[in-house]
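Entry 12.
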Amino acid sequence: MENNHQIDLRQILGVFTTYKWTILVVTLLFTAAVAAYAYLLKPMFHTSTLVSIEHKKALTLESLLPGGVGAAAATSALDTNIRILKSRKIISRVLDKIDLTKTYYKCKTFRGFIIKRIPEDRPPFEVIFMDRSGRMSGKYITVIQTSENTYLLHTKEPEFEKEFRFGQLYKTPDFMINVIKKRDFDEIYQFTYNADKLSLINGIIANLKITKPTEDLLEIGYTDFLPLRAKKIVDEIAKIYIDYNLKSKMTENEKLLQFVDTRLQFIRKTLKRYGEKLKAFQEENTQLIANKESGELFNRMVAQKEELTKLQYRLKELEKLRFKRKIVYADIMRLASTGISTAQFDTWMEKLRQIR
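Predicted 3D structure (tokens):
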């Protein structure tokens, strides 16, 4: 058995000896390929922020209605907020605040060839650019500083190369450009331009991830090869969403207050009408009531007094509700317990759905 093992080992060593150069070359090529891939690969960064969601409180008028769908609205509030955060309406507002039309790269070269483009969060210059021909989207545009006040601008498609001065606006048949220098630079820089808002929105949504770490929190996460840009996008999404949510709540409270004002006007008119009728009734039937000769008239007067008392109580509750900054479920339940009809709530909700 020992002789067999020795023979096998000699055979293996013989193979390595015979093909040593082939094995060495293959190993070196594989190592070089892995190293090149790792060098050329763009690193990706992930940043996130947390947003508190008050899903336990009523967020819609439906949840305030007696017998409404408050519980169902509470359970689905987080999912609704996730859809809002990833909506094109919110992302479009982000693009209005942050300029994502240009991406800057610092280039590594070897014998005149660009071998790596390193994304830059803080390039040494700022570009004001407009695509006049519609052919510049996604093309690499090269900027090389040639002196303290000048730079060389180069594009391959379309072929263009010319020296310009920093801080001055220039027009060509294909584009309009102004490069504003922030500091001197020796490296070769490039930038790309993309003004297609829909593709920018879809790109943000593709890299946006919304999760629910707890029942009261949403985590907004974004992945990008520019860490500063990722942070700006996440912060802006959170800010816009908070403003949007606050305005939605204010709108709902305003609608509720409009309803309260309508009911107040109705009850005031009704009180006035009942008061006039009661006064007239008392004047016309004072003698009969005093002698209690007409039980029916007396009962009618008592009933009208009771109705007047109820209306005064409803008016008092509506006045309280009108001056509250925030209307909650308990307020609506107390309002309904006074006998005020909630039918107008349903009518308003249908209008609110149509507006949304």
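Annotation: Confidence is low (pLDDT under 50) at residues 56-75. The first strand starts at residue 45 and ends at 52.
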